[in-house]
Amino acid sequence: MEIRSKQENFRLREWKLTDIDSLAKHINNVKIWNNVRDGLPYPYTMLDADKYIRMVQAQPYVQNFAIEVAGEAVGGVGIVPLTDVERLSAEVGYWLGEDYWGRGIMGEAVALLVDYVFRETGIIRLFASVYEYNPASMKVLEKVGFTRQAILRDAAIKNGRVIDMYYYDLVKREV
């Protein structure tokens, strides 16, 4: 599966085992790690990349896309669907290699993901949590149409510091 950007400067596509090198290269960055959950290893190794790609390839449908620029996977965008009574909701996550920041790629990538999820799956609600010190990520979500629903005070600990998390969501009927 492939989704081309309107500006034609990137595309979303499924992860491939040939992306191991570029995934490990671009995500192994403390500036990225500071803005994601601690479940993402840092330093990030080739073995971590191999495990991740094999995991997403085994999912029942495409939930995670590589962001490809000029033939190289330089970022990722995807969802984590919830289960049980929350099975119509999914958490959105995204990251982009530092060399590609400030180019408008992530805003369009998240918008393309939202369109795909609402069009191709039964999910009707997307949400994301952003650390208090990441206004660029908040701006990405707001640009796509997500609404800040809450500030979860002292909700996370990152790098030994207790921080607030900003909680955003987007419901299909609002799109």
Q: Could you describe the 3D structure shown?
A:
- With 175 residues, the chain is α+β, with helices and mostly antiparallel strands.
- It has five helices and eight strands.
- α1 packs across α3 (46-57) and α4 (105-120) crosses α5 (135-144).
- It has a single domain, classed as Gcn5-related N-acetyltransferase (GNAT) (Aminopeptidase).
- The model has no long low-confidence stretch (mean pLDDT 98).
- It has an eight-stranded mixed sheet with strand order 1-2-3-4-5-6-8-7, sandwiched between helices.
- 29% of the residues lie in helices and 35% in strands.
- GO terms for molecular function: acyltransferase activity, transferring groups other than amino-acyl groups.
Q: What share of residues are in beta strands?
A: 25-35%
CATH topology: Aminopeptidase
Note the gap between the termini: 23 Å
What is the total domain count? 1
Backbone shape: globular
The fourth-level CATH homologous superfamily is Gcn5-related N-acetyltransferase (GNAT)
Q: Which segments are poorly predicted (pLDDT under 50) over 5 or more consecutive residues?
A: none
Briefly, what CATH class? Alpha Beta
* Contiguous helical run count: 5
> Percent helix among the residues?
25-40%
Spell the H/E element sequence: EEHHHEEEHEHEE
Domain N-acetyltransferase: 18-173
GO molecular function: acyltransferase activity, transferring groups other than amino-acyl groups
InterPro entries: Acyl_CoA_acyltransferase, GNAT_dom
Keywords: Transferase
